[in-house]
Design brief:
Elements: H1 13-22, H2 26-35, H3 50-58, E1 62-63, E2 68-69, E3 79-89, E4 92-103, E5 106-110, E6 120-121, E7 131-136
Organism: Amphritea atlantica
Protein name: Peptidase C39 domain-containing protein
Length: 138
């Protein structure tokens, strides 16, 4: 049974998404992130991909070197970080991090947002990913 990690800070989606990939609690992942100089309050966490890559890499998890444009749900790898709610503020790109997983043919999105009625999402038509980062050997 999937037990999604919920972000404990309004801007903690990157930390929560990495926790969802690694199977850690939000507080454990936040401690690791903070020790690496990564803080949820830093807007760069949801406007730059290097931070989630660094957190995953520190646990031995590989990611695709580049962001891959989203084409369809069916073409996604079995595990990926997705950018949804993509928008610009003052010319800078921002997004919300979520995790896509395919388990035994079932596709789900783990969305850490605390306001959702369910953090295991299958309402794919409501999410509009811009691109994804493939996650390997997690």
């Amino acid at each position: 049974m999937l037990k999604p990690i919920i972000q404990e800070e309004a801007t903690g989606c990157g930390i929560a998404s990495v926790a969802n990939v690694l199977g850690k609690t939000y507080s454990d992942m936040k401690t690791v992130a903070n020790a690496m100089g990564i803080y949820a309050e830093n807007k760069s966490l949801w406007s730059d991909t290097q931070y989630v890559r660094e957190m995953l890499s520190s646990s031995g998890v590989e990611t695709s070197p580049d962001e891959i444009p989203f084409e369809s749900w069916g073409t996604l790898p079995d595990l990926a970080l997705l950018s949804i709610k993509y928008h610009q503020e003052s010319g800078k790109n921002f997004w919300h991090w979520v995790v896509f997983k395919r388990l035994d043919g079932q596709e789900v999105v783990l969305d850490s947002a605390s306001y959702l009625p369910s953090n295991i999402r299958t309402d794919f038509d409501q999410m509009q990913p811009k691109w994804f980062i493939e996650v390997m050997n997690a």
